[in-house]
Amino acid sequence: MKEKCIYKFDNIKVFLMILVIIAHTLINSYGDKGMEYIRFICLCYTMPLFTFIFGYLSKKEQSLKKNCIRLLLPCIIFTIINDLVQEWVNPNYIFSWKQPGFAMWYLWVLFVYRFALPYLIRIKYILLFSFLLSWFVGFIPFVGANYSLSRLCCFLPYFLLGYTIANEDVLVRYKNEIFQKLNFVGYLVLTFIFIGWFIIITFRPGLTFATAFNDGYSGNINGLMLRIALQFTIVLTGYCILKVFPNKETFYTKYGKRTLYVYLLHGLVVLPFAYIVFPSFGVATFIGKILMILVPTLCCIFLFSETVYKYMSFLFGQKSNFNY
Fold it and tell me: Which of the four pLDDT bands, split at 50, 70 and 90, describes residue 216?
């Protein structure tokens, strides 16, 4: 069963990584009309599902040395690299030592989760508490982008949900369910979810940017309700997407083990395209809109190659991936 589980997760990680790349090709256009639809499709469940898989594959026993080498070290190195790239390409970029570089927040939170896992699982009802924490932490003014504190709290439930489903007998039903094929009802639910949020985006643009979980909402109850609605959407959508992908080896399965290196390197491709080569999404022509998504994404496909994987593995001294 373990090998098949890896097949499913590797298959879906390739898909998720491509969605991340597409979303980041538009990073200079967040807020432009029409862009939010694309971003929502790409990111509404992507990083939470990555986090769920990482939690599912995590073990109770942790090695601080290995997690420092596999997560913290790449985070630090590519924070420096991506900060330098942003300084070069983005005239509005403001450096802050309190925040990881472009996209590196994710490796930071994974490192913290792995470090804290042996202690977290000693807490009774920790999964429930993690969801409550992710909801009510939005009322704390100082919990925001600095040190990725907001994301640390808000992505924790997905990590713990993955770990719990993989290791707790009480949730064995759901463990078996995610390896079954999605039925017609599931596809129908998935369709209605996206249609519903597209209608919301049309009349209330900007709401789905909260899927980044990078900011709080102080004393605003509406912010709390929005966060709960988005998390419900993420869990349900992620569950359906998990069931879409086959639990067997395919021609693209091997690329799933390379997604960490693609994640580390893709900023070097998409950032220059987003800030130098192409205009913002709102002022681009129809053909321009297609090209500004298609060209950087196709260039990033090379990052999945055996050549890149071999050299990155050599540099980091390991064949590293999100499966640690």
Answer: very high
What percent of the chain shows pLDDT beyond 70? 96
What's the CA gap between 320 and 324, in Å, rounded? 7
Q: Give the separation between CA 324 and CA 318, rounded to whole angstroms.
A: 11
SS3 state of residue 219: coil
Output the pTM of the full model. Answer: 0.94
Are 263 and 104 a contacting pair, CB within 8 Å? Answer: no
- The secondary structure of 144-189 as a DSSP string is SSGGGHHHHHHHHHHHHHHHHHHH-GGGHHHHHHTTSPP-HHHHHH
Q: Are 52 and 85 in contact (CB under 8 A)?
A: no
Q: Give yes or no for a contact between 25 and 270, defined as CB atoms under 8 angstroms apart.
A: yes
How many other C-beta atoms can be found within 10 angstroms of the C-beta atom of residue 34?
Answer: 12
Measured distance CA(22)–CA(197) in Å, rounded: 19
Q: Could you tell me the sign of the dihedral formed by the alpha carbons of 187, 49, 167, 120, in that order?
A: negative
Phi and psi angles of residue 142, each rounded to the nearest 5 degrees, phi first: -85, -5
Q: How far apart are the first and last CA of the chain?
A: 18
CA distance 223 to 151: 15
Alpha-carbon separation of residue 32 from 103, 212, 297 (angstroms):
21, 17, 20
Structure tokens at 86: 């942003």
